[in-house]
Protein backbone atom coordinates (compact mmCIF):
# COMPACT_ATOMS: atom_id res chain seq x y z
CA UNK A 1 0.00 0.00 0.00
CA UNK A 2 2.81 2.43 0.89
CA UNK A 3 4.54 1.68 -2.40
CA UNK A 4 1.34 2.32 -4.34
CA UNK A 5 0.77 5.62 -2.54
CA UNK A 6 4.34 6.64 -3.31
CA UNK A 7 3.84 5.82 -6.99
CA UNK A 8 0.59 7.76 -7.07
CA UNK A 9 2.27 10.84 -5.56
CA UNK A 10 5.05 10.71 -8.16
CA UNK A 11 2.65 10.24 -11.08
CA UNK A 12 0.21 12.85 -9.82
CA UNK A 13 3.02 15.38 -9.35
CA UNK A 14 4.27 14.72 -12.89
CA UNK A 15 0.74 15.15 -14.27
CA UNK A 16 0.27 18.40 -12.36
CA UNK A 17 3.59 19.78 -13.62
CA UNK A 18 2.57 19.04 -17.20
CA UNK A 19 -0.76 20.87 -16.71
CA UNK A 20 0.98 23.84 -15.14
CA UNK A 21 2.89 24.39 -18.36
CA UNK A 22 -0.31 26.04 -19.57
CA UNK A 23 -0.81 28.36 -16.59
CA UNK A 24 -3.54 30.48 -18.18
CA UNK A 25 -5.73 27.45 -18.92
CA UNK A 26 -5.11 26.11 -15.41
CA UNK A 27 -6.11 29.29 -13.59
CA UNK A 28 -8.96 30.11 -15.99
CA UNK A 29 -10.57 26.70 -15.46
CA UNK A 30 -10.04 27.06 -11.70
CA UNK A 31 -11.73 30.46 -11.60
CA UNK A 32 -14.61 29.35 -13.83
CA UNK A 33 -15.27 26.31 -11.62
CA UNK A 34 -15.47 28.62 -8.62
CA UNK A 35 -17.80 31.05 -10.43
CA UNK A 36 -20.16 28.23 -11.46
CA UNK A 37 -20.37 26.99 -7.87
CA UNK A 38 -20.98 30.51 -6.55
CA UNK A 39 -23.83 31.02 -9.04
CA UNK A 40 -25.39 27.68 -8.09
CA UNK A 41 -25.37 28.50 -4.39
CA UNK A 42 -26.53 32.06 -5.02
CA UNK A 43 -29.65 30.68 -6.71
CA UNK A 44 -30.38 28.55 -3.65
CA UNK A 45 -29.73 31.50 -1.32
CA UNK A 46 -32.13 33.73 -3.27
CA UNK A 47 -34.91 31.13 -3.03
CA UNK A 48 -34.39 30.66 0.71
CA UNK A 49 -34.11 34.39 1.33
CA UNK A 50 -37.51 34.85 -0.33
CA UNK A 51 -39.37 31.94 1.26
CA UNK A 52 -37.38 31.53 4.49
CA UNK A 53 -36.92 27.79 4.26
CA UNK A 54 -37.38 24.74 2.04
CA UNK A 55 -39.44 21.99 3.67
CA UNK A 56 -38.24 23.25 7.04
CA UNK A 57 -34.56 23.50 6.03
CA UNK A 58 -33.04 26.92 6.72
CA UNK A 59 -30.46 28.69 4.58
CA UNK A 60 -27.68 27.64 6.98
CA UNK A 61 -28.74 23.98 6.90
CA UNK A 62 -29.10 23.92 3.12
CA UNK A 63 -25.77 25.73 2.79
CA UNK A 64 -24.15 23.08 4.97
CA UNK A 65 -25.44 20.33 2.67
CA UNK A 66 -24.20 22.21 -0.37
CA UNK A 67 -20.75 22.97 1.08
CA UNK A 68 -20.12 19.42 2.28
CA UNK A 69 -21.00 17.99 -1.12
CA UNK A 70 -18.87 20.60 -2.91
CA UNK A 71 -15.82 19.68 -0.82
CA UNK A 72 -16.40 15.94 -1.29
CA UNK A 73 -16.69 16.38 -5.03
CA UNK A 74 -13.53 18.54 -5.12
CA UNK A 75 -11.53 15.85 -3.30
CA UNK A 76 -12.83 13.08 -5.57
CA UNK A 77 -12.19 15.00 -8.79
CA UNK A 78 -8.74 16.10 -7.60
CA UNK A 79 -7.53 12.61 -6.72
CA UNK A 80 -9.28 10.59 -9.43
CA UNK A 81 -10.59 12.90 -12.15
CA UNK A 82 -10.02 10.62 -15.12
CA UNK A 83 -12.07 7.78 -13.65
CA UNK A 84 -14.97 9.92 -14.82
CA UNK A 85 -13.45 9.96 -18.33
CA UNK A 86 -12.83 6.23 -18.79
CA UNK A 87 -15.02 6.20 -21.92
CA UNK A 88 -12.39 8.27 -23.73
CA UNK A 89 -9.67 5.77 -22.81
CA UNK A 90 -11.77 2.84 -24.03
CA UNK A 91 -12.79 4.45 -27.32
CA UNK A 92 -9.39 5.94 -28.18
CA UNK A 93 -7.35 2.96 -27.01
CA UNK A 94 -5.40 5.08 -24.54
CA UNK A 95 -6.10 2.48 -21.86
CA UNK A 96 -3.57 0.26 -23.63
CA UNK A 97 -0.83 2.70 -22.63
CA UNK A 98 -1.75 2.24 -18.99
CA UNK A 99 -1.67 -1.53 -19.38
CA UNK A 100 1.99 -1.31 -20.38
CA UNK A 101 2.99 0.45 -17.17
CA UNK A 102 4.27 -1.61 -14.21
CA UNK A 103 1.64 -0.13 -11.88
CA UNK A 104 -1.99 -0.97 -11.07
CA UNK A 105 -4.23 0.21 -13.92
CA UNK A 106 -6.65 2.07 -11.65
CA UNK A 107 -3.78 3.87 -9.94
CA UNK A 108 -2.40 4.91 -13.32
CA UNK A 109 -5.80 6.17 -14.44
CA UNK A 110 -6.30 8.16 -11.22
CA UNK A 111 -2.97 9.92 -11.68
CA UNK A 112 -3.81 11.21 -15.17
CA UNK A 113 -4.68 14.89 -15.72
CA UNK A 114 -4.49 15.79 -12.03
CA UNK A 115 -5.79 19.27 -11.24
CA UNK A 116 -6.40 20.78 -7.84
CA UNK A 117 -9.96 22.11 -7.54
CA UNK A 118 -8.77 25.19 -5.69
CA UNK A 119 -11.80 27.31 -6.58
CA UNK A 120 -14.28 24.66 -5.45
CA UNK A 121 -12.38 24.04 -2.22
CA UNK A 122 -12.23 27.74 -1.34
CA UNK A 123 -15.88 28.27 -2.19
CA UNK A 124 -16.96 25.16 -0.29
CA UNK A 125 -14.89 26.06 2.77
CA UNK A 126 -16.23 29.62 2.78
CA UNK A 127 -19.87 28.52 2.65
CA UNK A 128 -19.25 25.79 5.23
CA UNK A 129 -17.57 28.15 7.72
CA UNK A 130 -20.27 30.82 7.35
CA UNK A 131 -23.11 28.31 7.74
CA UNK A 132 -21.55 26.48 10.68
CA UNK A 133 -20.89 29.80 12.43
CA UNK A 134 -24.61 30.62 12.22
CA UNK A 135 -25.55 27.14 13.40
CA UNK A 136 -23.16 27.52 16.35
CA UNK A 137 -24.70 30.86 17.29
CA UNK A 138 -28.20 29.38 17.15
CA UNK A 139 -27.07 26.56 19.43
CA UNK A 140 -28.03 24.00 16.80
CA UNK A 141 -24.61 22.33 16.77
CA UNK A 142 -21.66 22.07 19.15
CA UNK A 143 -17.91 21.89 18.59
CA UNK A 144 -18.17 18.12 18.08
CA UNK A 145 -19.70 18.98 14.70
CA UNK A 146 -16.25 19.93 13.39
CA UNK A 147 -14.61 16.47 13.51
CA UNK A 148 -17.91 14.90 12.46
CA UNK A 149 -18.00 17.20 9.43
CA UNK A 150 -14.46 16.17 8.46
CA UNK A 151 -15.56 12.52 8.53
CA UNK A 152 -18.66 13.34 6.48
CA UNK A 153 -16.65 15.17 3.82
CA UNK A 154 -14.06 12.39 3.51
CA UNK A 155 -16.62 9.59 3.45
CA UNK A 156 -18.62 11.61 0.93
CA UNK A 157 -15.57 11.86 -1.30
CA UNK A 158 -15.10 8.08 -1.09
CA UNK A 159 -18.80 7.56 -1.84
CA UNK A 160 -18.71 9.79 -4.92
CA UNK A 161 -15.56 8.02 -6.08
CA UNK A 162 -17.19 4.63 -5.55
CA UNK A 163 -20.26 5.62 -7.58
CA UNK A 164 -17.99 6.99 -10.29
CA UNK A 165 -15.90 3.81 -10.29
CA UNK A 166 -18.96 1.56 -10.50
CA UNK A 167 -20.34 3.56 -13.41
CA UNK A 168 -16.99 3.73 -15.19
CA UNK A 169 -16.46 -0.02 -14.78
CA UNK A 170 -19.69 -0.66 -16.70
CA UNK A 171 -17.85 0.88 -19.65
CA UNK A 172 -15.97 -2.40 -20.12
CA UNK A 173 -19.31 -3.89 -21.16
CA UNK A 174 -21.17 -0.86 -22.54
CA UNK A 175 -18.25 1.25 -23.87
CA UNK A 176 -20.44 4.37 -24.19
CA UNK A 177 -21.31 5.45 -20.66
CA UNK A 178 -21.47 9.25 -20.85
CA UNK A 179 -25.27 9.34 -20.62
CA UNK A 180 -25.24 6.89 -17.72
CA UNK A 181 -22.66 9.03 -15.90
CA UNK A 182 -24.91 12.04 -16.38
CA UNK A 183 -27.55 10.21 -14.33
CA UNK A 184 -25.45 8.45 -11.69
CA UNK A 185 -22.93 11.23 -11.07
CA UNK A 186 -23.94 14.65 -12.38
CA UNK A 187 -27.74 14.60 -12.00
CA UNK A 188 -27.76 12.63 -8.73
CA UNK A 189 -25.07 14.83 -7.17
CA UNK A 190 -26.87 17.99 -8.25
CA UNK A 191 -30.09 16.68 -6.70
CA UNK A 192 -28.55 16.21 -3.23
CA UNK A 193 -27.15 19.73 -3.18
CA UNK A 194 -30.63 20.44 -1.82
CA UNK A 195 -32.52 18.69 1.01
CA UNK A 196 -33.70 15.31 -0.31
CA UNK A 197 -37.01 15.74 1.52
CA UNK A 198 -38.15 18.28 -1.11
CA UNK A 199 -38.40 15.55 -3.76
CA UNK A 200 -41.18 13.01 -4.39
CA UNK A 201 -40.99 9.74 -2.46
CA UNK A 202 -39.86 7.72 -5.49
CA UNK A 203 -36.96 10.07 -6.09
CA UNK A 204 -36.00 10.06 -2.42
CA UNK A 205 -35.91 6.27 -2.57
CA UNK A 206 -33.68 6.33 -5.64
CA UNK A 207 -31.19 8.74 -4.02
CA UNK A 208 -31.08 6.53 -0.92
CA UNK A 209 -30.90 3.11 -2.58
CA UNK A 210 -30.34 2.80 -6.34
CA UNK A 211 -27.89 5.75 -6.44
CA UNK A 212 -27.24 6.31 -2.71
CA UNK A 213 -25.53 9.67 -3.11
CA UNK A 214 -27.75 11.09 -0.33
CA UNK A 215 -25.42 9.35 2.15
CA UNK A 216 -22.71 11.82 1.14
CA UNK A 217 -24.38 14.72 2.95
CA UNK A 218 -28.13 14.51 3.61
CA UNK A 219 -28.34 11.35 5.73
CA UNK A 220 -25.55 12.19 8.22
CA UNK A 221 -26.78 15.80 8.38
CA UNK A 222 -30.17 14.63 9.65
CA UNK A 223 -28.42 13.58 12.85
CA UNK A 224 -25.70 16.23 13.00
CA UNK A 225 -27.92 19.26 12.33
CA UNK A 226 -31.30 18.05 13.57
CA UNK A 227 -30.64 15.21 15.99
CA UNK A 228 -32.86 12.86 13.99
CA UNK A 229 -32.43 9.11 13.67
CA UNK A 230 -29.56 8.63 16.12
CA UNK A 231 -25.83 8.41 15.54
CA UNK A 232 -26.40 5.42 13.27
CA UNK A 233 -27.16 7.88 10.46
CA UNK A 234 -23.73 9.41 10.94
CA UNK A 235 -22.04 6.01 10.90
CA UNK A 236 -24.04 4.93 7.84
CA UNK A 237 -22.19 7.36 5.57
CA UNK A 238 -18.69 5.79 5.81
CA UNK A 239 -20.17 2.28 5.93
CA UNK A 240 -22.14 2.75 2.71
CA UNK A 241 -19.13 4.44 1.09
CA UNK A 242 -16.83 1.55 2.03
CA UNK A 243 -19.29 -1.08 0.76
CA UNK A 244 -19.79 0.71 -2.56
CA UNK A 245 -16.04 1.19 -2.94
CA UNK A 246 -15.46 -2.55 -2.41
CA UNK A 247 -18.16 -3.30 -4.99
CA UNK A 248 -16.57 -0.81 -7.39
CA UNK A 249 -13.15 -2.45 -7.08
CA UNK A 250 -14.68 -5.88 -7.70
CA UNK A 251 -16.54 -4.71 -10.81
CA UNK A 252 -13.42 -2.88 -12.04
CA UNK A 253 -11.30 -6.04 -11.79
CA UNK A 254 -13.91 -8.10 -13.61
CA UNK A 255 -14.15 -5.46 -16.29
CA UNK A 256 -10.39 -5.46 -16.81
CA UNK A 257 -10.45 -9.24 -17.25
CA UNK A 258 -12.81 -8.93 -20.21
CA UNK A 259 -11.17 -5.86 -21.72
CA UNK A 260 -9.81 -6.44 -25.21
CA UNK A 261 -6.96 -4.23 -26.34
CA UNK A 262 -7.44 -2.14 -29.46
CA UNK A 263 -4.06 -3.35 -30.67
CA UNK A 264 -2.90 0.21 -31.41
UniProtKB/TrEMBL annotation:
Lineage: superkingdom: Bacteria
Stored InterPro entries: ABC-2_transporter-like
Record's keyword annotation contains Transmembrane: yes
Coiled-coil boundaries: none
Keyword Cell wall biogenesis/degradation: no
Sorted UniProt keywords: Membrane, Transmembrane, Transmembrane helix
Membrane-spanning segments: 26-49, 145-174, 206-225, 231-252
Protein name: ABC-2 type transport system permease protein
Species the sequence originates in: Paenibacillus sacheonensis
Amino acid sequence: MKEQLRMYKLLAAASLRSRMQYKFNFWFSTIMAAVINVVEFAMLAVILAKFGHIKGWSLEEAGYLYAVLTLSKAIYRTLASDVHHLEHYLVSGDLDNLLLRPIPILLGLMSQNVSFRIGEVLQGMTVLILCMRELFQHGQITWTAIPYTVVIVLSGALLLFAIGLLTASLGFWLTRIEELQTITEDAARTAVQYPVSIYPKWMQGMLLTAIPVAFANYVPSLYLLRGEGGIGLLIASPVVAACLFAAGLLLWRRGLMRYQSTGT
